[in-house]
């Protein structure tokens, strides 16, 4: 067992943390506080993987949507805007024309 695992277990056993999960969560929180750039990198990756929306990724990074979009542009990352399939849009358009 690695020394870090032993130290983590010792902190839990001493009652400093209720569980390993709690200790790890606090450690990650402190990591993002001391290295804020990592928060941006994590939110970019979450956005690129489709795990979060652009707005939510910006929020996770601690910035505005426009600041986040600027970073995407600076890195040459194209912002993809998803929309309904053309057929669905055409049906909706046809319905609107029929309602007039």
Give your account of this protein's structure.
By secondary structure, this protein is an all-alpha fold. The protein folds into two domains: 1-34, no CATH class; 36-100, no CATH class. 71% of the residues lie in helices and 0% in strands. It is elongated and about 70 Å long.
Distance between the ends: 72 Å
> Order of SSEs, N→C?
HHHHHH
Number of domains: 2
Mean pLDDT, all residues: 90
How many β-strand stretches?
A: 0
| SS-based class | mainly alpha
What kind of sheet is the major sheet? none
Strand content: under 5%
| Helix content range | over 70%
Specify the overall morphology.
Answer: elongated
* Number of H/I helices: 6
Q: Can you tell me the residue ranges where pLDDT is under 50 for at least 5 consecutive residues?
A: none
Integer-rounded radius of gyration: 22 Å
Secondary-structure blueprint:
Layout lengths: L2 H11 L6 H15 L1 H13 L5 H8 L3 H10 L11 H14 L1
Helix pairs in contact: 2-3, 3-4, 4-5
In short:
The protein has 100 residues and is mainly alpha-helical. The protein has helices at 3-13, 20-34, 36-48, 54-61, 65-74, 86-99.
Note the main attributes of this structure.
single chain, 100 residues, mainly alpha, 2 domains, elongated
């Amino acid at each position: 067992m690695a020394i870090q695992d032993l130290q983590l277990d010792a902190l839990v056993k001493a009652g400093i943390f209720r569980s390993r999960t709690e200790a790890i969560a606090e450690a990650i929180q402190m990591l993002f506080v001391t290295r804020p750039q990592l928060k941006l990198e994590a939110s970019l990756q979450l956005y690129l993987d489709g795990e979060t929306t652009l707005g939510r990724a910006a929020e996770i990074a601690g910035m505005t949507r426009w600041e986040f979009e600027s970073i995407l542009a600076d890195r040459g990352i194209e912002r993809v805007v998803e929309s309904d399939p053309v057929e669905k849009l055409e049906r909706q358009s046809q319905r609107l024309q029929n309602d007039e």
